[in-house]
# Entry
Amino acid sequence: MTPVIQTRKAKLQHVLQIRPAAKSEVARFFRTVVRTRMRSITELFSADRLEMADECIVAVLDGKIVGATCLVFDTGDGAELATEYVLKEYQGEGIGTRLTRAGIERLIALGKTPIHVDVASEAMDSTLDRLPRKDRRHLRLKRSYLKYGEVDLPER
# Structure
């Protein structure tokens, strides 16, 4: 599960690694994001939410975590692709897509289906639409952005 890819944009001529991570590593990443990048605390990165995760996956660029997603194996009616975040300066590079794919592929490989995904943006919806049909059939999408608008994190 550790594919190494080149980022798409020329300004980032670095190797991106997608790999499993310990909860403590992701908790440190989320705490840093909240402390240095958010105007206010957001539930998305709370310790309670992270505690629910069974596994975490990170995107690492030049030794630095630039994104993370968390997986919940059993929500009572399936699994969940939970919290996902990519640092703002790396958004639009396909990193979130790689994290989403890695998380969904991991849950499918473990037989943890159906997979519930709270779709918070049109971009994420588009990413999920591009997944192979064999993977998409395992998804149960809640397109909350259609009802409530896209998630607007309190970023600085």
